[in-house]
Amino acid sequence: MSKRADFYDAPAHDYLRYWDGRDYENAAEQAAIRRLLHGRRFGHAADVGGGYGRLCVLLQEFADRVTLAEPSSRQLEIAENFLAGHPRIERRQMQADALAFEDGSLDLLTMIRVMHHIPEPSTEFAEIARVLRPGGTAVIEVANLAHARNRVRYLLKGQRIPHLPVDIRSPENRHDEEIAFVNHNPHTVIEQLARCGLRTEGMLSVSNLRSTTLKKVLSHRVHVAAEVACQRVLARTFFGPSAFLLLRKD
Ligand SMILES: C[S@@+](CC[C@H](N)C(=O)[O-])C[C@H]1O[C@@H](n2cnc3c(N)ncnc32)[C@H](O)[C@@H]1O
Protein backbone atom coordinates (compact mmCIF):
# COMPACT_ATOMS: atom_id res chain seq x y z
CA MET A 1 0.00 0.00 0.00
CA SER A 2 1.25 3.53 -0.76
CA LYS A 3 0.96 6.34 1.76
CA ARG A 4 -2.23 6.69 3.78
CA ALA A 5 -5.03 8.57 2.06
CA ASP A 6 -6.32 10.19 5.24
CA PHE A 7 -6.22 13.85 4.18
CA TYR A 8 -9.94 14.22 4.73
CA ASP A 9 -9.36 13.80 8.47
CA ALA A 10 -8.17 17.41 8.52
CA PRO A 11 -10.70 19.98 9.77
CA ALA A 12 -9.98 22.06 6.64
CA HIS A 13 -11.85 19.39 4.64
CA ASP A 14 -15.32 20.13 5.95
CA TYR A 15 -16.83 18.04 3.22
CA LEU A 16 -20.41 18.22 4.50
CA ARG A 17 -20.33 22.05 4.31
CA TYR A 18 -18.58 21.87 0.93
CA TRP A 19 -21.95 20.99 -0.55
CA ASP A 20 -23.63 24.19 0.66
CA GLY A 21 -24.58 26.07 -2.52
CA ARG A 22 -23.78 23.09 -4.72
CA ASP A 23 -27.26 21.63 -5.13
CA TYR A 24 -26.88 21.80 -8.91
CA GLU A 25 -23.64 19.77 -8.91
CA ASN A 26 -25.11 17.24 -6.48
CA ALA A 27 -28.28 16.83 -8.58
CA ALA A 28 -26.22 16.61 -11.79
CA GLU A 29 -24.10 13.78 -10.37
CA GLN A 30 -27.05 11.89 -8.93
CA ALA A 31 -28.89 12.15 -12.26
CA ALA A 32 -25.82 10.82 -14.08
CA ILE A 33 -25.50 7.79 -11.80
CA ARG A 34 -29.22 7.04 -12.09
CA ARG A 35 -29.04 7.25 -15.85
CA LEU A 36 -25.97 5.02 -16.13
CA LEU A 37 -27.45 2.38 -13.82
CA HIS A 38 -31.04 2.63 -15.06
CA GLY A 39 -32.81 -0.73 -15.18
CA ARG A 40 -29.98 -2.64 -13.47
CA ARG A 41 -30.03 -4.45 -10.15
CA PHE A 42 -26.97 -5.48 -8.15
CA GLY A 43 -26.16 -7.61 -5.13
CA HIS A 44 -23.28 -5.95 -3.28
CA ALA A 45 -22.23 -2.36 -4.16
CA ALA A 46 -19.38 -0.36 -2.66
CA ASP A 47 -18.79 3.37 -2.92
CA VAL A 48 -15.01 3.78 -2.75
CA GLY A 49 -13.80 7.08 -1.33
CA GLY A 50 -17.44 7.68 -0.54
CA GLY A 51 -16.72 10.42 2.01
CA TYR A 52 -19.59 10.75 4.49
CA GLY A 53 -21.89 8.68 2.26
CA ARG A 54 -23.44 11.38 0.07
CA LEU A 55 -24.18 8.88 -2.71
CA CYS A 56 -24.73 5.68 -0.71
CA VAL A 57 -28.43 6.26 -0.20
CA LEU A 58 -28.91 6.54 -3.96
CA LEU A 59 -27.00 3.29 -4.46
CA GLN A 60 -29.58 1.52 -2.33
CA GLU A 61 -32.03 2.09 -5.20
CA PHE A 62 -29.88 -0.27 -7.28
CA ALA A 63 -28.22 -2.68 -4.86
CA ASP A 64 -29.34 -5.07 -2.12
CA ARG A 65 -26.29 -4.31 -0.02
CA VAL A 66 -24.22 -1.09 0.06
CA THR A 67 -20.83 -0.50 1.66
CA LEU A 68 -19.30 2.91 2.20
CA ALA A 69 -15.54 2.31 1.76
CA GLU A 70 -13.65 5.36 2.91
CA PRO A 71 -10.11 5.97 4.25
CA SER A 72 -10.85 8.99 6.45
CA SER A 73 -11.98 8.29 10.04
CA ARG A 74 -13.48 11.75 10.19
CA GLN A 75 -15.66 11.20 7.13
CA LEU A 76 -16.76 7.85 8.55
CA GLU A 77 -17.72 9.59 11.81
CA ILE A 78 -19.80 12.15 9.89
CA ALA A 79 -21.37 9.22 8.04
CA GLU A 80 -22.65 7.84 11.32
CA ASN A 81 -25.03 10.80 11.54
CA PHE A 82 -25.61 11.29 7.84
CA LEU A 83 -26.56 7.65 7.31
CA ALA A 84 -28.32 7.22 10.67
CA GLY A 85 -31.62 6.51 8.92
CA HIS A 86 -29.98 3.82 6.78
CA PRO A 87 -28.67 1.20 9.19
CA ARG A 88 -28.15 -1.34 6.41
CA ILE A 89 -25.39 0.72 4.78
CA GLU A 90 -22.09 -0.66 6.09
CA ARG A 91 -19.18 1.68 6.78
CA ARG A 92 -15.67 0.36 6.37
CA GLN A 93 -12.30 2.06 6.51
CA MET A 94 -10.10 1.39 3.48
CA GLN A 95 -8.46 3.14 0.57
CA ALA A 96 -8.62 2.43 -3.12
CA ASP A 97 -5.17 0.85 -3.48
CA ALA A 98 -5.93 -1.75 -0.79
CA LEU A 99 -9.61 -2.68 -0.96
CA ALA A 100 -10.60 -5.02 1.84
CA PHE A 101 -12.95 -7.08 -0.31
CA GLU A 102 -12.49 -10.63 -1.56
CA ASP A 103 -11.60 -11.20 -5.21
CA GLY A 104 -14.71 -11.01 -7.41
CA SER A 105 -17.00 -10.21 -4.48
CA LEU A 106 -18.57 -6.93 -5.66
CA ASP A 107 -21.27 -6.51 -8.28
CA LEU A 108 -21.05 -2.71 -8.45
CA LEU A 109 -18.35 -0.27 -7.47
CA THR A 110 -18.59 3.50 -7.66
CA MET A 111 -15.77 6.00 -7.22
CA ILE A 112 -16.87 9.61 -7.55
CA ARG A 113 -14.74 12.73 -7.01
CA VAL A 114 -11.77 10.60 -5.94
CA MET A 115 -9.68 10.37 -9.11
CA HIS A 116 -8.55 13.97 -8.69
CA HIS A 117 -6.66 12.80 -5.59
CA ILE A 118 -4.97 9.90 -7.43
CA PRO A 119 -2.36 11.08 -9.96
CA GLU A 120 -1.20 7.59 -10.89
CA PRO A 121 -4.19 5.26 -10.59
CA SER A 122 -2.90 1.94 -11.99
CA THR A 123 -2.75 0.20 -8.57
CA GLU A 124 -6.23 1.45 -7.72
CA PHE A 125 -7.67 0.31 -11.08
CA ALA A 126 -6.09 -3.13 -10.64
CA GLU A 127 -7.71 -3.33 -7.19
CA ILE A 128 -11.10 -2.34 -8.61
CA ALA A 129 -10.76 -5.02 -11.29
CA ARG A 130 -9.77 -7.57 -8.64
CA VAL A 131 -12.76 -7.01 -6.36
CA LEU A 132 -15.39 -6.86 -9.11
CA ARG A 133 -16.90 -10.13 -10.29
CA PRO A 134 -16.53 -10.92 -14.01
CA GLY A 135 -19.28 -8.96 -15.74
CA GLY A 136 -19.44 -6.58 -12.76
CA THR A 137 -20.03 -2.86 -13.15
CA ALA A 138 -18.13 0.24 -12.09
CA VAL A 139 -18.99 3.92 -12.34
CA ILE A 140 -15.91 6.09 -12.10
CA GLU A 141 -15.90 9.85 -12.21
CA VAL A 142 -12.91 11.51 -13.86
CA ALA A 143 -11.88 15.08 -13.13
CA ASN A 144 -11.69 16.00 -16.79
CA LEU A 145 -8.64 17.85 -18.09
CA ALA A 146 -10.04 17.92 -21.62
CA HIS A 147 -13.19 19.92 -20.83
CA ALA A 148 -14.30 22.57 -23.30
CA ARG A 149 -12.92 25.61 -21.48
CA ASN A 150 -9.56 23.95 -21.03
CA ARG A 151 -9.42 23.00 -24.69
CA VAL A 152 -9.86 26.65 -25.59
CA ARG A 153 -7.20 27.66 -23.03
CA TYR A 154 -4.67 25.17 -24.40
CA LEU A 155 -5.54 26.09 -27.97
CA LEU A 156 -4.86 29.76 -27.26
CA LYS A 157 -1.45 28.76 -25.87
CA GLY A 158 -0.82 26.68 -29.01
CA GLN A 159 -0.60 23.50 -26.93
CA ARG A 160 -2.35 20.14 -26.96
CA ILE A 161 -4.17 18.74 -23.93
CA PRO A 162 -1.50 16.72 -22.04
CA HIS A 163 -1.87 12.95 -21.88
CA LEU A 164 -0.61 12.86 -18.31
CA PRO A 165 -2.43 14.29 -15.29
CA VAL A 166 -1.98 17.97 -14.56
CA ASP A 167 -1.45 19.22 -11.00
CA ILE A 168 -4.05 21.92 -10.38
CA ARG A 169 -2.94 22.89 -6.86
CA SER A 170 -1.91 26.44 -6.17
CA PRO A 171 1.91 26.84 -6.05
CA GLU A 172 1.97 27.07 -2.23
CA ASN A 173 0.15 23.72 -1.94
CA ARG A 174 2.45 21.80 -4.29
CA HIS A 175 4.27 19.67 -1.78
CA ASP A 176 4.03 16.05 -0.66
CA GLU A 177 2.26 16.76 2.63
CA GLU A 178 -0.65 18.40 0.79
CA ILE A 179 -3.31 16.24 -0.84
CA ALA A 180 -2.81 15.64 -4.57
CA PHE A 181 -5.20 17.52 -6.84
CA VAL A 182 -5.02 16.63 -10.52
CA ASN A 183 -7.13 16.67 -13.64
CA HIS A 184 -6.87 13.63 -15.89
CA ASN A 185 -7.00 13.26 -19.64
CA PRO A 186 -10.06 10.98 -19.98
CA HIS A 187 -8.59 9.21 -23.02
CA THR A 188 -5.57 8.19 -20.94
CA VAL A 189 -7.81 7.03 -18.09
CA ILE A 190 -9.96 4.94 -20.44
CA GLU A 191 -6.79 3.24 -21.73
CA GLN A 192 -5.48 2.65 -18.18
CA LEU A 193 -8.81 1.11 -17.20
CA ALA A 194 -8.86 -1.10 -20.31
CA ARG A 195 -5.39 -2.41 -19.45
CA CYS A 196 -6.87 -3.63 -16.14
CA GLY A 197 -9.78 -5.35 -17.88
CA LEU A 198 -12.29 -2.58 -17.23
CA ARG A 199 -14.02 -1.76 -20.49
CA THR A 200 -15.81 1.56 -20.96
CA GLU A 201 -19.32 0.88 -22.18
CA GLY A 202 -20.93 4.25 -21.55
CA MET A 203 -20.15 7.76 -20.48
CA LEU A 204 -21.77 11.05 -19.58
CA SER A 205 -20.51 14.60 -19.48
CA VAL A 206 -21.46 16.10 -16.10
CA SER A 207 -21.74 19.57 -14.57
CA ASN A 208 -21.82 20.99 -18.07
CA LEU A 209 -23.70 24.12 -16.99
CA ARG A 210 -21.79 24.83 -13.79
CA SER A 211 -21.87 28.59 -13.53
CA THR A 212 -22.59 31.05 -10.75
CA THR A 213 -24.57 33.19 -13.18
CA LEU A 214 -26.78 30.30 -14.32
CA LYS A 215 -27.38 29.37 -10.68
CA LYS A 216 -28.67 32.91 -10.15
CA VAL A 217 -30.80 33.34 -13.26
CA LEU A 218 -32.30 29.84 -13.60
CA SER A 219 -34.50 28.04 -11.12
CA HIS A 220 -32.81 24.92 -9.71
CA ARG A 221 -35.35 22.74 -11.54
CA VAL A 222 -34.72 24.31 -14.94
CA HIS A 223 -30.95 24.37 -14.41
CA VAL A 224 -30.86 20.65 -13.59
CA ALA A 225 -33.27 19.75 -16.40
CA ALA A 226 -31.01 21.55 -18.89
CA GLU A 227 -27.96 19.77 -17.46
CA VAL A 228 -29.62 16.37 -17.74
CA ALA A 229 -30.59 17.12 -21.35
CA CYS A 230 -26.90 17.79 -22.14
CA GLN A 231 -25.21 14.90 -20.36
CA ARG A 232 -25.44 12.29 -23.09
CA VAL A 233 -25.29 14.66 -26.06
CA LEU A 234 -22.02 16.20 -24.82
CA ALA A 235 -20.44 12.97 -23.57
CA ARG A 236 -18.42 12.14 -26.69
CA THR A 237 -16.86 15.61 -26.75
CA PHE A 238 -15.90 15.49 -23.03
CA PHE A 239 -17.44 18.93 -22.72
CA GLY A 240 -17.95 19.22 -18.96
CA PRO A 241 -15.46 19.32 -16.07
CA SER A 242 -16.50 15.86 -14.97
CA ALA A 243 -16.74 12.65 -17.00
CA PHE A 244 -18.72 9.72 -15.62
CA LEU A 245 -17.58 6.39 -17.06
CA LEU A 246 -19.68 3.22 -16.99
CA LEU A 247 -17.35 0.21 -16.98
CA ARG A 248 -17.71 -3.50 -17.31
CA LYS A 249 -15.23 -5.95 -15.88
CA ASP A 250 -14.38 -8.42 -18.65
C1 LIG B 1 -14.09 15.01 -2.78
S1 LIG B 1 -14.37 13.71 -1.63
C2 LIG B 1 -15.64 12.75 -2.46
C3 LIG B 1 -16.49 11.94 -1.53
C4 LIG B 1 -17.63 11.18 -2.21
N1 LIG B 1 -17.14 10.27 -3.21
C5 LIG B 1 -18.60 12.14 -2.83
O1 LIG B 1 -18.58 12.30 -4.06
O2 LIG B 1 -19.39 12.72 -2.08
C6 LIG B 1 -12.96 12.70 -1.88
C7 LIG B 1 -12.96 11.48 -1.01
O3 LIG B 1 -11.97 10.60 -1.49
C8 LIG B 1 -11.31 10.03 -0.37
N2 LIG B 1 -10.00 9.59 -0.84
C9 LIG B 1 -8.88 10.33 -1.06
N3 LIG B 1 -7.88 9.56 -1.48
C10 LIG B 1 -8.38 8.30 -1.56
C11 LIG B 1 -7.85 7.03 -1.94
N4 LIG B 1 -6.59 6.92 -2.33
N5 LIG B 1 -8.64 5.96 -1.87
C12 LIG B 1 -9.93 6.08 -1.49
N6 LIG B 1 -10.50 7.24 -1.13
C13 LIG B 1 -9.73 8.33 -1.16
C14 LIG B 1 -11.28 11.13 0.65
O4 LIG B 1 -11.04 10.65 1.96
C15 LIG B 1 -12.65 11.77 0.45
O5 LIG B 1 -13.61 11.20 1.26
Can you give a write-up of this model?
There is one protein chain. With 250 residues, the protein is an alpha/beta fold. The chain has a single domain, classed as Rossmann fold (3-Layer(aba) Sandwich). Helix content is 32%, strand content 23%. The protein has nine helices and nine strands. A seven-stranded mixed beta sheet has the order 3-2-1-4-5-9-8, sandwiched between helices. Strands 6-7 form a two-stranded antiparallel sheet. Helix 5 links the parallel strand 4 and strand 5 (132-143). Helix 2 (23-37) runs parallel beside helix 9 (220-231). It is globular. It starts with 14 loop residues before the first helix and ends with a strand. 41% of the residues are buried. Bound molecules: S-adenosylmethionine. Residues 5, 8, 15, 48-51, 54-55, 70-72, 75, 95-96, 112-114, 117-118 line the site of S-adenosylmethionine.
Write the layout of secondary structure elements.
Blueprint: H1 15-18, H2 23-37, E1 42-48, H3 56-59, E2 63-70, H4 73-82, E3 90-93, E4 106-111, H5 122-131, E5 132-143, H6 148-156, E6 166-167, E7 182-183, H7 186-195, E8 198-206, H8 212-217, H9 220-231, E9 242-249
Parallel strand pairs: 1-2, 1-4, 2-3, 4-5
Antiparallel strand pairs: 5-9, 6-7, 8-9
This protein binds S-adenosylmethionine.
